[in-house]
Write the structure tokens for this entry.
Amino acid sequence: MRGLRVTTTTGADTVLEGTVVEAFKGSLRGELLCPDDEGYDSSRKVFNAMIDKRPALIVCCAGTADVITAVTFARTHDPLVSVRGGGHSIAGKAVYDGAVLIDLSSLKGLRVDPARRIAHAQPGLRLGEFDRETQAFGLATPLGVVTNTGIAGLTLGGGLGWLNGKYGLACDNLLSVDVVTADGRFLTASPNENADLFWGVRGGVGNFGVVTSFEYRLHPVGPVLGGMMFYDMSKAKEVLRFFREFSWECPDELSTTATFLTSPDGTPLVALVACYCGALTEGGKVLEPLRIFGEAVADLIHPSNM
């Protein structure tokens, strides 16, 4: 194998000898992808198609041991390192030119303990995949608002979602994590073990290590009442005034937001988005003001699963 040019943490370029890359590849259980390998282009893509970066190497981790090996390799050779979880990465931080990409997207293990209301989840999971399993038991935890978002980056960044009003942020419902730190150690962090590290990862956006497992507190959440009310853009001022007053008085079970968007035919619209996570009958009463306010272009609020 020929040598590979990588970008180091100082910003300078260096070349990894082919024998070094081959030895690294042989030490992994998962794949190691170079720019000429099949699957490289699909593995470097993230959800945001505007991001078009080319890492020097992609480590397709098959387990925690591969993460430890990748981090140790990076300490030895000093390349830039990025980490990909679910691959949503709207800002593109999961992938950098010339870096070693530690790809966790195939780590999708999830174990739900319905009796204790706890879920153990791996970092490659996306929100929709997580919810599908927990909802089989009528349980959920606060995560994001977009099904394709990965649980890892969202949780490590704090975690805004539709259940925040009632149950707090995603990081508020994190009970423990397993982390591979920059020096290659594997640690468990919780309120009672490595508490400073646990404090740091709950909102620290992943800069304290590579999290390989998340333990979440779950809550009983059945079908929710949610969706969008659409209004013509000419009504935006009165819609937003109404939204300000309505959201100020809403109960914890209701999360709302206002947004501007464009319909498929190009019509500018203003939308009020709502999610009520309590009893559906009560939710109907709470959301009634939305339905009697103004003249909506469309009413898409209805019961649905998380």
